[in-house]
């Protein structure tokens, strides 16, 4: 019992230490993000890596999700003679939830693992220590570009996913329910407000922050050589995806209040 209590106490202390470390990293990253000496070249490189290289997987996934949703809803809606509602239901689900969340999960797994692997490799090979020795700040050089690129790229990718998912739903509605693309688009325009679209986009800003900060923090604290980098990469993916799912609930609740 004594050993268990000691282990439990050490576990909670470790969590508090990591929360404090993440909080300090967020504070310093945001502070550096508003300085004039930002390296635009590094930011653009990270936007290419995080944003543009993720577009194909986002489009394919969103189109598939839109098509699958129509297939699932077609049977039930046909029974009640309400096939005209398919466009409204599918578009609202994609714009408010599925587009932002699925995009963040897919891109978060890809980007988070890459960030941790890259920074973790620099940590175990003492390149981060070399940056400090040269008088530069690793947070400003490594974390800030990835942070800014993530909070810009995630909303951009979410918007692409929304349109791709609605397009996939439109195609499948025409095939399965014989709903013309014109009628489908009309129902979408009538029912989906700009507030619905923005509520999903706003959430992805926080999801991008989560992925960038968690990936950088775990990478900068990686230990144990190449095996340690592998463990850190796995830990980043797990924590990031769990926090995105949990954060989605609280952000949705908050946005519904306002």
Outline the structure in words.
The structure is a single chain. The chain has 258 residues and is an all-alpha fold. It has one domain (2-257). The chain is 87% helix and 0% strand. The chain is elongated and about 70 Å long.
SSE blueprint:
Blueprint: H1 2-33, H2 40-50, H3 55-79, H4 86-124, H5 127-133, H6 138-176, H7 181-191, H8 194-220, H9 225-257
Features of this protein?
mainly alpha
Mean pLDDT: 87
Rg over CA atoms, rounded to whole Å, is 22 Å
Whole-number total of structural domains: 1
* Inertia-based shape: elongated
Instruction: Give the H and E element order.
Output: HHHHHHHHH
Uncertain runs are none
Percent of residues in helices comes to: over 70%
Largest sheet entry: none
The span between the termini is 48 Å
Short description:
The chain is mostly helical.
């Amino acid at each position: 019992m004594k050993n268990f209590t000691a282990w439990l106490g050490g576990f909670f202390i470790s969590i508090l230490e990591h929360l404090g470390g993440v909080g300090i990293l967020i504070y310093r990253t945001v502070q550096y993000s508003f300085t004039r000496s930002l390296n635009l070249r590094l930011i653009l490189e990270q936007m290419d890596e995080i944003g543009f290289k993720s577009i194909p997987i986002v489009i394919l996934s969103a189109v598939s999700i839109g098509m699958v949703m129509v297939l699932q809803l077609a049977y039930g809606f046909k029974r009640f003679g309400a096939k005209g509602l398919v466009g409204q239901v599918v578009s609202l689900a994609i714009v408010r939830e599925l587009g932002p969340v699925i995009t963040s999960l897919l891109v978060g797994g890809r980007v988070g693992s890459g960030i941790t692997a890259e920074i973790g490799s620099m940590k175990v090979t003492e390149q981060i220590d070399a940056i400090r020795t040269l008088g530069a700040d690793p947070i400003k050089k490594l974390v800030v570009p990835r942070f800014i690129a993530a909070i810009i790229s995630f909303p951009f990718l979410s918007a692409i996913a929304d349109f791709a998912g609605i397009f996939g739903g439109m195609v499948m509605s025409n095939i399965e329910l014989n709903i013309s693309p014109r009628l489908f688009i009309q129902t979408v325009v009538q029912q989906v407000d700009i507030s619905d679209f923005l509520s999903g986009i706003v959430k992805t800003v926080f999801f991008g922050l989560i992925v960038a900060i968690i990936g950088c923090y775990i990478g900068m604290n990686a230990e144990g050589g190449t095996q340690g980098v592998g463990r850190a990469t796995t830990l980043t993916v797990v924590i990031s995806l769990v926090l995105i799912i949990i954060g989605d609930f609280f952000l949705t609740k908050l946005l519904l209040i306002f």
